[in-house]
Amino acid sequence: MRRSLLAFTLPLLAGTVCAQDVPDDFLIQGDDIPVVLTTTRLKQPRAEVPASVTVIEAEQIRSWGARTIPELLRFVPGMVLGHSQSENSDTVVYHASVQNFMRRMQVQVDGRAVYKAAIAQVGWDDIPIALEDIQRIEITRGPSSATYGANAFMAVINIISKAPEDTLGTRLRYRGGNQSVQDALISHSAMTGSGSYRLTGAYYADDGFDGEFAEDGDDQWNDDNRQQFMSGVYQTSLTDRTHWQLRAALNNSHADIGNKDPGLWQKRDTDSVFVQSNLEFDFSANHRSQLQVYWQREERAQRQYECVDTILLDPALFDLYRLNPQGTLALIANPFDSSVLNTSAEAALYNQVLSNAGFPDMTLLGINLDDETCGTVPTNIVDQRVDIEWQDTVIWNDTLRTVSGISYRHDQADSESLFKGQRSNNLVRLFGNVEWRLQPWLLLNAGAMYEQEDINEDAFSPRLALNWLLSPQQSVRAVFSQAVRSPDMLEQQPAWTLTAYNLRSPSTGLTGAASNYLELTEGTYFLSHIAADRGLDQERITSIELGYYHLLPQWRAELDIKLYRDELRDLTSGSLNFETPDVTSDDRMDIQGAEMQLKWQPHHSDWLWLTMAYTDVEATRLSETRISPEKTLTASWHHRGEGWNATLSYLWLDSYANGENLYQRSELYVRKDWQVGRYQFWTGVFWQHQFAQEALGHYTQRYSTPNLYYLQAGLEF
C-alpha cells in the first residue's frame, strides 16, 4: 500500500495546476484567490480550507454537457456513480458504500438538506434545480459532521444556485437523443423594484438501461424515468443591512422499477414541494447573522404487481411468523418438519394454515404450494421536514474568526406498509468553528457539532486542522475528524407489512374473494417485521488526512493532493427489507488511499481538468465495495474557439465491482453559438462511447449500444 501511494503522489508534487474565472462572491476581495464557502461555513481562501475540496463551476457544467448532477460528480476524485436497482435512481458513492442507498453523504441545495427524512437516501430525480441555474457545486471530500451534522459522514455536496440578476432574460432549451432522451427547459429572470426573481420549469425523460441481453439498440428492461418541476426564487434588500431570499418549488417524478416481465410491473410516483426563507443581517463589517427556515414535503406512491403462493397470504401464517419467525421460514422450506414449532399455540396456527389449504392434518403429504394469487402491493410513504437554523459569524480581530449556530429540525413520516402509521423525530443541533491564525504562516481550525435527537443517542463530532502556509497560495494541511451517521427511522423503528389489493388468480382470471381458496379480497404477506426500537448504534468514522494545495496564477494552475486513512465502525451494511428481520450495526471498513486534482489553463481558450484516485478498502461485507474501483482517472480537455467550443473527456475505472471489471468511456461535447441582435441561438451535440459494455453495478444495468448521443438547441434573449 505504501509503495502504491508513493508511486501515485511523487510524480504529482512536481506538477502544476487552473484558476477559472469565478464570480466576485467566490474571490477574496481585490485578489484572484478563489475561496470556498462550504467546509467551515466561513469564506476561506483555498489554501486555508481545512479539508480537500472540489469546486465545479458553471463553466464546467456548461462545457461537459451533462444531463444530471450525478454525471457531473464523476469528475470528482474518489466519487463513483452507481444506480439503485430497487429505486431505479442514481446513487453517488465516495470511496465505498452500499450502492442501493446513498446514505453517507450530505447533499444541500442553497442550504437546504435534500437527504430524506424517513429513509436515508438522496433522490436525485426529485431535486428541482436545473443545471443551467447552478453557479457552482462545492464538494468537501471528508467527514463534515462537525459542520453539517450526522449525515455529513464521508462528504458534503453543496449546490449553490445563481442569483436571479445573473440570469436576466428568458432561456429556452430542448434536448433529444437515443435511450428516448427528451428534455426541455424554460426560464425567465427579471428585476422588480428593489428585488429580482427567477422562474424555471423543466422536464426530463429517458428509458434507462436496456437489460442484460439486449443488443443493437433493443430495450428489454422496463426502467423508464420522468421528472418535471417548477421552481422560483425571489430576493430583495429590506434595508441596507437586511437581505431576504424566498425559494419554492413543485416537483413530480415517475420511475418504472426495472423488470423483464411487463406483466409483473413496479412503479414509483413522487410529488414533492418545498418553501425556504433566508434572512441575512449585516450588523457590521465584522458581524453577520442568518436565519434560515424551510419546510419540505414528499409523497411517494410506489406500487408493484406481484404473484405469490396463496398460502403465503394466510392470516394464520402471518400470526405464526410473529410468534416464531425462524420456525415459520423453516416450515416454508420443509412443510412437514413440525419440530421447529415450540408451543401448542404455534402448532394450532400451523394446523389452521394446512386446514385452510385443504389439508386438515399436518402429517398429510402433498400440500400444493403452486396455487398462486396476484395483486397490487403499495409501499407508499409521506415524509416532511421543518428546519429552523440561526447562524452567527464574527470577525473578532485580524487573527480570530468564529461561526456558531443552533438549529431545530422536526422529521415526520407516514406509511402503513413501512411504519404501520406515523413516525417522528426531533433534532436539536449546536455547532461552531474557530479559525485562529496562530502565526502568519500557521492557521488552526477547530470545529464541533453536538446533536440531540429522539430516536438515536446524542452525538458529538469534532474536527481539528492545521494549515501550514508556505505562501498565501500554497499550503500543507493536517486534518483529524470524527463523524457519525445516525440510523434513519426505517433502520431504527421499522414496521414492515405488505398487503396486496385487487387480488386475481393468474390461472382462472377470477378476481376478489373468488380468486383464492382463502376467500380474501386483500391479503397481507406473512413476512413482517415490527420493532419499537432496534437499538442500532450510530455509524462512526475517524479520519486522518494530510493534504497539499498550490495555486500558481502565473501558470493558471491549481493542484490539490490528499493522503488519507478512514476507519469506519458500527456500520449498518445489511439489506433493509421485509425479508431481513435482523439488522445489526457491527460491520466495519478501513479505507486508505490518495487523491489528486489538477486544473490547468495553458491558454485563455483551453483548460485541462484531471483527477486521479487510489482507494484501498478492507470491509467485513463485500456489498460495501461493489461499485468501488481501486484506481480511477478522469481527464477533460476544453477548447473555446470563435463562437464555438468543444470538450473531450475520458473516464477510467480499474478493479471495479470487487476487482472484476475495467470500465472505460469517452465523451465529446461540441457547442456552437450565434448572436442575432438581442437573440442568442445555440446548438450542441453530445456523444458518449463505452469501450467495454460492462454493467454499471447490477448485471441488468447495461446499454444495448456502446454509443449514446443527444442533440440540443437553445435560445436566450
CATH level-4 homologous superfamily? TonB-dependent receptor, beta-barrel domain
CATH level 1 name: Mainly Beta
- Sheet with most strands: 22 strands, antiparallel, barrel
The rounded distance between the terminal residues' Cα atoms is 55 Å
CATH topology: Maltoporin, Chain A
- Amount of beta strand: over 45%
Instruction: Determine the number of helices (DSSP H or I, runs of at least 4 residues).
Output: 10
Q: Pick out the low-confidence regions.
A: 1-31, 362-367
Instruction: Please indicate the count of domains.
Output: 1
How many individual β-strands? 36
Identify the CATH architecture: Beta Barrel
Category from helices, strands and their pairing: mainly beta
Measured as a percent range, the helix fraction is under 10%
Look at the structure and give the mean pLDDT. 88
* Shape summary: globular
Oligomer: single chain
GO cellular component, one term: cell outer membrane
GO molecular function: siderophore uptake transmembrane transporter activity
Protein name: TonB-dependent receptor plug domain-containing protein
Keywords: Cell outer membrane, Membrane, Receptor, Signal, TonB box, Transmembrane, Transmembrane beta strand, Transport
